[in-house]
Design goal:
This protein is of the alpha+beta class. Helix content is 25%, strand content 43%. It folds into 2 domains: 161 residues, Super Roll (Bactericidal permeability-increasing protein, domain 1), CATH 3.15.10; 265 residues, Bactericidal permeability-increasing protein, domain 2, CATH 3.15.20.10. The protein is built from 8 helices and 23 strands. Strands 1, 7, 8, 9, 10, 11, 12, 22 and 23 form a 9-stranded antiparallel β-sheet that branches. Strands 13, 14, 15, 16, 17, 18, 19, 20 and 21 form a 9-stranded antiparallel β-sheet that branches. The longest helix is centred in the middle third of the chain and has 38 residues. 37% of the residues are buried.
């Protein structure tokens, strides 16, 4: 698997699963190729360390087997570039050091090799990226020995060199092909589910063949969210998401575009899972939470009449309506419309409904990326708006209730919501791949993440 990591990072952000919306676009740019070229030298060197079979010396009356060992492979140059409408071209320079175990003394020689290979990038039948080697050619240079004092060894040198070159001509391309196959196995792991919550997951899939230019490779991705094993489907259709060309990508390794549809699906999942619901319970004698019947009784006489002794009050916050995310240039907002039932705890521990509220909360949404997850933080925009939906305690002055319930409602709601958004949602990635110094930009109807990459070995 180590050999796959070099080229593997080329497509490390390629996602996997179902062929519909919501839309995600991943672009890997020239800067990603430069990074892969640097960290890929080690895996390539190990892949090229092939086994050389014994050389059979036929110059005498008896065949003399001679063992040959590759002592070292050094790759000083490794370069990758995009081939438009095809895939990736690999070019590398490698220096081989061999040891020839010849009596009376072993002999060392070096051989310079230039390696050229073209790899096609396509879409597999299961929605994963697949790479295949279509062309490979090793150009073998002249060899040189380190010790020319032994005439017997020198007489053997020419046929040994030819033997080595014949072996390398055959085995080096097989090693590259094997490296690519390991890579395909590695990329196949992208089809696994990534947890979003205790009972929810997200899975990515390529929905079409990649678009490849001389500057980048771009992949259209479907992201499917699951709750209890069932896909989340929005009640409306969405057009296919296209990452606009004006989004600058030249100076970053990876560019990930996330559509409005993805945010809508994620919020629908949270709403269906009940993750946004919460109970806020008042405590008697608490300075931090004034939710009790005595405080409400000062504003609503009927509450004081029904509960002459102070009892705790509970706010049951339920989101029947799906939260709405709005994406405008440099501005992401979130609207929640919870239904809040105000309950008093009676002396027998039963709940007694006092009244209920329709609430509208507008929030500023700040997005960030940690490792390979998109996270969010919210803060309240303006005033929380309350409207009495029903009452078992007579007429209620909304303004007065707002002053009490609003203050004890806002902080727990934000704490709960930010804890959920802080868990994050997995972005397209592979195991051990992290986003480095990511920048999140909000546009009209979509979000763009521009980031470097780091593979943790």
């Amino acid at each position: 698997m180590a050999g796959a990591l070099g080229l593997g990072l080329l497509l490390a952000l390629l996602p996997v699963v179902s062929a519909s919306m919501p839309g995600t676009v991943v672009r890997l740019n020239k800067a990603a190729l430069s990074y892969v070229s640097e960290i890929g030298k080690g895996p390539l060197q190990r892949a090229l360390q092939v086994t050389v079979p014994y050389f059979l010396d036929r110059s005498g009356e008896v065949l003399q087997p001679t063992r040959i060992q590759i002592l070292n492979v050094h790759v000083p140059q490794f370069h990758l570039k995009f081939i438009a409408d095809f895939g990736i071209r690999l070019s590398a320079a490698a220096n081989f050091t061999f040891k020839i175990f010849r009596v009376p003394e072993p002999l060392e020689l070096t051989l310079a090799v230039e390696l050229l290979a073209d790899a096609r990038v396509a879409q597999s039948s299961i929605g994963t990226p697949v790479i295949s080697t279509s062309y490979c050619f090793p150009l073998l240079g002249r060899s040189s020995d380190f010790d020319d004092s032994n005439s017997t060894s020198r007489a053997l040198l020419v046929p040994v060199q030819e033997h080595i070159k014949a072996v390398l001509s055959n085995k080096l391309c097989l090693s590259v092909a094997s490296l690519v196959q390991e890579l395909n196995v590695h990329l196949g792991t992208l089809i696994g589910l990534n947890p979003v919550g205790p009972e929810s997951q997200i899975r990515y899939t390529m929905i079409s063949a990649p678009t490849i230019t001389s500057d980048y490779i771009s992949l259209d991705i479907s992201a499917v969210l699951f709750l209890l094993g069932k896909p989340i489907v929005l009640p409306r259709d969405a057009t296919r998401f296209v990452l606009p060309q004006h989004v600058r990508t030249e100076d970053t390794m990876a560019t990930v575009g996330l559509s409005q549809h993805l945010f809508d699906s994620a919020l629908l999942l949270l709403q269906k899972a009940g993750a946004l619901n919460l109970d806020i319970t008042g405590q008697l004698g608490s300075d931090d939470n004034l939710l009790n019947t005595s405080m409400l009784g000062l504003l609503i006489p009927e509450v004081a009449r029904q509960f002459p002794e102070p009892m705790p009050v509970v706010l049951k916050v339920r989101l029947g309506a799906t939260p709405v995310a709005t994406l405008h240039p440099n501005n992401a907002t979130l609207r929640l419309q919870p239904f809040v039932e105000v309950l008093a705890v009676a002396s027998n521990s039963a709940f007694h409904s006092l009244f209920s509220l329709d609430v509208v909360v507008d929030l500023s949404l700040q997005l960030s990326v940690s490792r390979a997850k998109l996270q969010g933080t919210t803060s309240v925009l303006g005033d929380i708006r309350l409207k009495v939906a029903s009452s078992n305690v007579g007429v209620i002055d909304t303004d007065q209730v707002h002053a009490l319930t609003g203050s004890v409602f806002e902080e727990p709601l934000l704490k709960h919501l930010n804890a959920l958004l802080g868990i994050g949602i997995a972005l397209p990635s592979v195991v051990n791949l992290h986003y480095v110094t990511p920048e999140v930009s909000v546009y009209e109807g979509y979000v763009v993440i521009s980031s470097g990459l780091f593979y943790l070995h």
